[in-house]
Design brief:
about 25% strand, two-stranded antiparallel sheet, 3-stranded antiparallel beta sheet, 2 helices, alpha+beta
Length: about 100
């Protein structure tokens, strides 16, 4: 993800406020806080939100974010009533959700 993509994502309006996700390597977080014995080699961004309109957010991502490699983008989501996470990918101009146990 280019830094421009992150800026575009953070322009999303969420209950009248700007949306905010951050990198797991953000300087405001402790180094390697996520466990394990090495640094993550993937670009991972995190955030937690109450009552996020997922359909609207996904539509925003597809319409407004210029992905360098859209087929590589994955959104991992667990909604409040769900027992499992699901992975949403952007393939062939559609959104595909895959449950993750």
């Amino acid at each position: 993800m280019r830094s421009g993509s992150l800026k575009q994502i953070n322009q999303y309006e969420y209950y009248g406020k700007k949306f905010r996700i951050i990198s797991i390597n953000d300087s405001s977080l402790p180094k390697a806080w996520y466990g394990g014995d090495k640094y993550a080699e993937a670009r991972i961004f995190i955030g937690a939100y109450n009552s996020l309109d997922l359909a609207d957010f996904l539509s925003y991502l597809k319409r407004n974010v210029k992905w360098e490699f859209p087929d590589w983008v994955q959104l991992i989501v667990k909604e409040e009533i769900d027992f499992m996470f699901k992975i949403i990918t952007f393939n062939d101009d559609s959104l595909i959700g895959i449950p993750v146990e």
